[in-house]
Design brief:
This protein is α+β, with helices and mostly antiparallel strands and about 270 residues long. It has one domain. The protein is about 40% helix and about 10% strand. It contains seven helices and ten strands. The strands form five sheets. Strands 1-2 form a two-stranded antiparallel ribbon. Strands 3-4 form a two-stranded antiparallel ribbon. Strands 5-10 form a two-stranded parallel sheet. α1 runs antiparallel to α7 and α3 crosses α5. Bound molecules: 2-acetamido-2-deoxy-beta-D-glucopyranose (NAG) (4 copies). One 2-acetamido-2-deoxy-beta-D-glucopyranose binds next to loops. This is Folate receptor-like domain-containing protein. InterPro entries: Folate_rcpt, Folate_rcpt-like. Keywords: Disulfide bond, Signal. Pfam families: Folate_rec. One of its GO terms (cellular component) is external side of plasma membrane.
Length: about 270
């Protein structure tokens, strides 16, 4: 009997651990939980645990013209080099299971202040410097009409629109990203991110005074249900977040049932 109680406990613990680790942003086309995708055309970095469906990545096959409702070729087709960086950022947003850790409390389909390495921002800027754009923030500076974005200003080069890589990272997608020069505590949007992530979420206190009782708490998902005030226009998000909570309860319940069945099976045998 003790074994089965332990098993129930283990399953519940597993579920708690699972709930701390996994999740996806509450975007319209995204999953509730990451899962493998075997037929992705792009964003293969996330194929083992993807928040986007494989069919989404068809939009990201070169030459990219439109992603969801946003035309990327609004001034002219992006250069291959620039497109590669834009894709990496888009894949992170749509498909990465890591993005969930920075879910924006005011807009659960997006994230807030994901720390990108300054070196990544500078490479992105360098790759796009001669490409054209007419909006500094691609979230707020376009005119939206007929289900797509339109220019409100002249097309200029990225190097004229943005001062440098830091400015590009911190402006193009609003406050989604921060440019971080904290080596080993920032993302490059590549296969090293999985290794770096624990250091960002739970920075080691080794280099600091180990006796400190005021250690910096680990970064946690900035979302908490009671922070979403219902008078905001994002009822959509509240709804999705509630569904998400229910799904989580169901997952727990499934584990419980599994455990109960094992216990019952054992008592029948005995
Ligand atoms: C997916 O998982 C397999 C097996 O663990 C591993 O060999 C592979 O490198 C992973 N792929 C990615 C893109 O992380
Ligand atoms: C992509 O696939 C998912 C799941 O298979 C489906 O729910 C969704 O409607 C598909 N989206 C498009 C645009 O085909
Ligand atoms: C939107 O579509 C309407 C009707 O087809 C057209 O008259 C209008 O110019 C379009 N707006 C833009 C910004 O293209
Ligand atoms: C980047 O540009 C910003 C202004 O947008 C400026 O404050 C910052 O010092 C610049 N960074 C570098 C490294 O030149």
């Amino acid at each position: 009997m003790r074994v089965y109680v332990a098993l129930v406990g283990a399953l519940l613990l597993l579920d708690v651990a699972f709930s701390l680790e996994e999740g996806c942003l509450a975007g319209r086309g995204q999953k509730s939980f990451p899962s493998p995708e075997t037929t992705m055309k792009e964003c293969l970095l996330y194929s083992n645990a993807s928040c986007c469906f494989a069919n989404f990545t068809e939009e990201l096959v070169s030459p990219v013209t439109k992603v969801e409702h946003t035309k990327w070729d609004i001034c002219q087709q992006l250069s291959d080099r620039c497109e590669t960086y834009m894709k990496r950022v888009e894949c992170f947003y749509q498909c990465s299971p890591q993005a969930f850790h920075w879910m924006n409390p005011d807009y659960t389909a997006g994230f807030l202040h994901v720390p990108l390495c300054v070196s990544f921002c500078d490479s992105w800027f360098d790759a796009c410097k001669d490409d054209l754009t007419c909006a500094k923030s691609w979230l707020t500076d376009f005119k939206w009409e007929n289900d797509s974005n339109h220019c409100q200003h002249d097309c200029v080069t990225f190097s004229k629109m943005y001062t440098n890589g830091t400015d590009l990272c911190q402006s193009m997608w609003g406050s989604s990203f921060l440019a971080s020069s904290s080596e080993g505590h920032c993302l490059q949007i590549d296969d090293q991110d999985d290794m770096v992530l624990p250091h960002i979420l739970c920075p080691s206190s080794r280099s600091r005074s180990t006796t400190s009782s005021q250690e910096k708490p680990c970064h946690q998902s900035s979302l908490s249900l009671d922070e979403i005030s219902p008078d905001q226009e994002n009822w959509d998000s509240v709804f999705v977040t509630s569904l998400y909570a229910i799904a989580r309860e169901l997952a727990t319940w499934t584990h419980l049932q599994m455990a109960l069945q094992i216990m019952l099976g054992a008592s029948h045998q005995g």
